[in-house]
Specification:
It is built from 8 helices and 15 strands. The chain is globular. The mean pLDDT is about 95.
Length: about 300
Amino acid sequence: MANAPEVYVNGRYLPADQPQVSFFDWGFQFGDGVYEVISTWQGVMFRLDDYLDRLDASMHAAWLDPGLSRAQWREAVIEVTRRSGLRDAGTKIIVSRGAQPPGTNDLRLCRPNVFIAASPYMFLGTEAQRDSGIRLMIAHQRGMPADTLDPRYKHISRLQYNLARIEAAEAGHDDLVWLSHDGYVQEAPRSNLFAVRDGVLYTPAAGVLHGITRMTFCELARELGIPVEVRPLTAFDLFVADEVFTCSTSGAALAVREVSGRPVRQAVPGVITRRLQEAYWRIRAEGRHGTPVYPG
């Protein structure tokens, strides 16, 4: 099966190399759709229902209703992952607007398309970056304000994100974070952000995707007795932080060693970053919040 991966397309399981998307799908033409990526580690899928809850919120807010029940979503996501044969995987769901019926210009008449595929688990950072941290740049671009497109939509339009990533790479940085139009730290293109100062863990309060890994890290910090504050942060807060790290589905914490040329003040990865990362992978190994992909 690993040599012949299958994808889920609107209720059918098809070979991944078979064309799946209509040229006329608004998701393909205009990036009109939403998505999720759910991770599986050692055969156990993490927080499946939390990711499906977020997908449901994005779909409802975006007027996308492919007509699947929660049981059908769960079955499709698990089955695609199972058919891949992967024990460590990232399973991506894309719900696109679909194509308009011929002769109409009414987007409400589009029938959404659902695509689900599993691929090998990927860490955002290389092994060296995970060991010694990344160089983070504060981008000149500003995050999308909520009165334009709320960051809580996990949408497939990635041009803003990808341009920023390319600019950061061209400037010699590993990743970037952008600010809101009034100067507050928001997030990175593929991850949320945390900072530590005097033993307190901080994460931005607004203008961010409500990350499932971010939520998990806040829960773990409280379990470990680490104070957590969700509040507005500025670039200055990152410059003077004792620790900075990003977090995502793809590898959880990734320590930052430099923010726009300013070295992070303490050893990288920092003590709290390490504690949280170790706790995260411990609960993954224990199966907490887990859904087994394979029987037995």
